[in-house]
């Protein structure tokens, strides 16, 4: 497990007794919302930065000095709000734009979540956005990630392919075609995701609707980042729900109409407590929308989102459930066990 846990999760963990931590460690739980490039352990990022050579003007846009500065910023990560959050990914992408580094990064992320005597989770659904990189097509990208994922047994991990809201329609279509093709070949792609800058792109377009329809028809499950900010229009949220998602990421600012659909359809919510607090889309744990879903006995899955910038861990996120206020939500062990069980029940396999 990463040693460099900070902030809310570190404080919550510090309030728990050894037996409470042991209880959390032993709970079977599924991590269903972790972005590959947002989950690379810092030591691996430092290693990539040390070896960085800008060999491709297209994919290595930064000088060695710029990369070093970027890594330093990542080490002292300081989020102003969610809009400032996407910048650091440009530096990370420059570091994972070769097949060798993408492979190493994937291996390290899988190990971070799945290896060791008390792994962070029993099961990981890792997600990543296919990118063109040095001598790699988007198809090569997904195959490279899958090759690592498939080194683990089927009941431990699988891949979700992400669409970025900024993608041009033809790129979105290409990504869906890749996901369908690999699934039909028996590769371990279980779903598609919609992510990226929450205010980018046109989510009403025919091409977006077609992508999700095709994915569903091919047997792929759908998860969507939705209502991540207050500025996501209510109408857009309803539009996204019309794509019949199986799960939703964040779902922070859904109105009554949208929530009625979510409850009715029992669409599980991927809850990322630290991510929401650090991106300041939720002001305090006490005000978090997880309370609404728990009160309504609605399925939720506790997830980390991006452990690289947020310096959290899945154990730490569960500590936020169990720790007493103000460090956590003060839930009972039975309630926390039920939440962990819901994460297992919300898997795409
Ligand atoms: P990747 O898909 O493996 O490259 O992981 C990093 C990418 O995930 C980022 O560039 C974003 O597009 C996306 N991402 C990570 N965290 C969030 C989030 O909280 N909201 C929306 N998109 C996110
Ligand atoms: Zn996310």
TrEMBL record:
One of its GO terms (molecular function) is adenosine deaminase activity. One of its GO terms (biological process) is inosine biosynthetic process. Its cofactor is Zn(2+). It comes from the Eukaryota. Keywords: Hydrolase, Metal-binding, Nucleotide metabolism, Zinc. The keyword Transcription regulation does not apply. Residues 28-348 form the Adenosine deaminase domain. Gene3D superfamilies: Metal-dependent hydrolases. It catalyses: N(6)-methyl-AMP + H2O + H(+) = IMP + methylamine. It holds the Pfam family A_deaminase. SUPFAM superfamilies: Metallo-dependent hydrolases (SSF51556). Belongs to the metallo-dependent hydrolases superfamily. Adenosine and AMP deaminases family. This is Adenosine deaminase-like protein. It comes from Dendrothele bispora (strain CBS 962.96). The lineage of its organism: Eukaryota, Fungi, Dikarya, Basidiomycota, Agaricomycotina.
């Amino acid at each position: 497990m990463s040693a460099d846990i900070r902030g809310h999760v570190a404080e919550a963990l510090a309030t728990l007794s050894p037996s409470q931590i042991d209880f959390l460690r032993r709970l079977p739980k599924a991590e269903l919302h972790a972005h590959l490039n947002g989950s690379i352990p810092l030591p691996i990022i430092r290693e990539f930065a040390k070896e960085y050579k800008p060999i491709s003007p297209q994919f290595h846009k930064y000088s060695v000095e710029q990369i070093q500065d970027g890594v330093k910023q990542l080490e002292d990560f300081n989020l102003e709000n969610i809009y400032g959050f996407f910048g650091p990914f440009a530096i990370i992408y420059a570091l994972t734009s070769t097949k060798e580094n993408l492979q190493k990064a994937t291996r390290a992320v899988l190990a971070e979540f799945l290896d060791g005597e008390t792994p962070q989770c029993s099961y990981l659904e890792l997600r990543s956005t296919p990118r063109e990189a040095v001598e790699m097509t988007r198809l090569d990208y997904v195959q490279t990630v899958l090759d690592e994922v498939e080194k683990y047994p089927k009941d431990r991990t699988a891949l979700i392919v992400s669409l970025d809201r900024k993608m041009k329609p033809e790129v979105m279509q290409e990504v869906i075609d890749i996901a369908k093709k690999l699934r039909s070949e028996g590769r371990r792609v279980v779903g598609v995701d919609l992510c990226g800058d929450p205010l980018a792109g046109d989510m009403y377009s025919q091409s977006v609707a077609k992508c999700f329809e095709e994915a569903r028809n091919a047997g792929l499950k759908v998860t969507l980042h939705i209502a991540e900010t207050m500025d996501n229009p209510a109408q857009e949220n309803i539009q996204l729900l019309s794509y019949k998602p199986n799960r939703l990421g964040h779902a922070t600012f859904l109105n009554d109409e949208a929530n009625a659909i979510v409850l009715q359809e029992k669409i599980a919510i991927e809850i990322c407590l630290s991510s929401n607090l650090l991106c300041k889309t939720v002001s305090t744990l006490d005000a978090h929308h997880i309370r609404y879903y728990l009160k309504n006995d609605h399925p939720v899955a506790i997830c980390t989102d991006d452990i690289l910038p947020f310096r959290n861990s899945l154990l730490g996120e569960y500590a936020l459930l169990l720790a007493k206020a103000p460090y956590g939500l003060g839930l009972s062990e039975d309630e926390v066990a039920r939440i962990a069980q819901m994460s297992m029940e919300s898997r795409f396999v």
